[in-house]
Amino acid sequence: MDAMSSGSTKPLYRGTQIVYYILGLVEVLLAFRLVLKLLGANAGAGFTSFIYSVTAPFAAPFVAVFKVSKAQGSVFEWTTILAMFVYWVVALGIIKLLVMGKTVSTPEAAVKLDRQDQ
User: pTM of the predicted model, to two decimals?
Assistant: First the structure.
């Protein structure tokens, strides 16, 4: 049975799609946060307040890692950049784990193992 007809391929594909979707959503929200802070957006405005409140839990683990750079009302949050990078790395790790669960034939596994030895 090849990988295309394997019953485990479609769920793995869907799983990777879900991870990429969630990653994209988090990255876009964090990018909005970064731009709004950088441009000195009014924190009391509805959209700005919404973005800050939604992204706060994603940025919170990284808040104390770097100092915030400020200049005339603009804020550059290095922590948001770090958060975006960490979530990207975590998502890639999850996708690698999902793909490792894919069924492979013995000949395919032998070829891949030979490539790893080189």
Answer: 0.78
